Amino acid sequence: MSESIQSLVPSHGEGDVNTSSLRAQWQRQHLNQATHEMLKRDAAVFMHQSVSTPCLSAVRRVHGIFIEDVSGRTYMDFHGNNVHHIGYQHPRLIQAIKDQLDSLSFAPRRFTCEPAVALAEKLTSLAPGNLNRILLAPSGNDAIEMALAYARAATGRHKTISFWDAYHGAGFGARSLGGGSHVPQWSNWPAPARQ
Ligand SMILES: Cc1ncc(COP(=O)(O)O)c(C=O)c1O
């Protein structure tokens, strides 16, 4: 394996990376041919990614706390990225998303709109103390990166404390927070002056 390819192999120190013989044996025993073929196609076109590589199986349907795979097995999902709170395919959420797509699918942030303000008001009414403004982030990683930037700006300090080997997202800042030294001392130069 070439050095550049080897560097793409997921690190066993980071999250749910399972390349053990037991995982392979389980897959041989329990997954059907269609699943093996999909896993092969997936591995051929997706870059290896710590925390989720290699895929365990292929999903066919999700509902409530359940994941059904292509081989017909049903799993209870105790992790549930982004759907921990209400379960997969909650009918009220599906209906609300459909209604919003039909009425106002996107608003550039230079324009405000009723649903955005209503959501912000709801969240600030639930938050404790003087937490009375919000900023929406497109992902967990972005939320962490933004929080790091704001904490620095608010405190004037630059060090953070975190648990070693924790996962906070795939960006430079979030990964560094989990213990990796991904952010070297960058040289920053002033932007060129406008003529
Ligand atoms: C604890 C934790 N923090 C941060 C993240 C990153 O979230 P996202 O994938 O939305 O960037 C994840 C994602 O799995 C997570 O589990």
Number of strands: 3
Quick one: biggest sheet?
3 strands, antiparallel
Strand order of the largest sheet: 1-2-3
How much is the radius of gyration in Å? Answer: 22 Å
- Category by helix and strand content: mainly alpha
Low-confidence stretches: 1-7
Secondary structure tally, helices: 7
Q: Concise description?
A:
The chain is mainly α. It is 38% helix and 6% strand.
Give structural notes.
- With 195 residues, the chain is mainly alpha-helical.
- The protein has 3 domains: 3-57, no CATH class; 62-105, no CATH class; 106-177, no CATH class.
- Helices cover 38% and strands 6% of the residues.
- It has helices spanning 3-6, 21-30, 33-45, 91-103, 114-126, 140-155, 172-177, and strands at residues 59-63, 66-69, 74-76.
- It has a 3-stranded antiparallel sheet with strand order 1-2-3, with no helix packed on it.
- The N and C termini lie far apart (51 Å).
- Residues 81, 139-141, 167-169 line the site of pyridoxal-5'-phosphate.
- Pyridoxal-5'-phosphate is lined by residues 81, 139-141, 167-169.
